[in-house]
Amino acid sequence: MKKALFIDRDGTILVEPQPSQQIDGLTPDKFQFLPGAISGLARIAHDLPEYELVLVTNQDGLGTASFPEETFWPAHQLMRDILATEGVHFAAELVDRSFPHQCLATRKPGLGLLAHYLD
Predict the structure, then answer these.
(1) Where are the strands (E) in 12-119, listed by range?
(2) Rounded Cα gap, residues 85 and 99, in angstroms
(3) What are 84-112's pLDDT values in tens digits?
(4) Which string of b and e fits 73-94 if b means at least 16 CB within 10 Å?
């Protein structure tokens, strides 16, 4: 059984834009890597091959009128592509689309999205 390292996206890999907190575009105010994120993840991928990397992220209302899918995926794919050039690949990407007021167990810091890994 392989070990897993769970990595948050917004605020860990990418700068979380204020006040919207949604990375829904490819402009510099919406899409920026945090300093050291790319090199840090590349080092983890290279130095710890026994771990699979799992991306875990809350994306409030993804797929709704206020946060359409077509505004999310281009930036997300660009992040993936840039990280892949450094040897960083995610074994899985776990996306919670709920809003905070819904209080779902799948929303971080809840563990609902990780059920597969906790069995």
Answers:
(1) 51-58, 90-96
(2) 33
(3) 999 999 999 999 999 999 999 999 999 99
(4) eebbeebeeebeeeebebeeeb
DSSP string, 87-111: T--EEEEEEE---GGG--TTSTTSS
> In the predicted model, is pLDDT for residue 33 greater than 80?
yes
Please report the pLDDT score of residue 119 as a whole number: 76
What's the rounded Cα separation, in Å, for the pair 89 and 64?
28
The whole-angstrom separation of Cα 60 and Cα 20 is 10
The answer, as to whether pTM is greater than 0.70, is yes
State the Cα–Cα distance between residues 37 and 24, nearest whole angstrom: 19
Active site (annotated) includes residue 8: yes
User: pLDDT for 4-25, tens place per residue?
Assistant: 999 999 999 999 877 767 787 6
- Per-residue tokens: 53: 């990397």
The active-site residue, picked from 8, 29, 47, 119, is 8
Residue 29 pLDDT exceeds 90: no
Burial of 104 (0-12, 13-18, 19+ CB in 10 A): middle
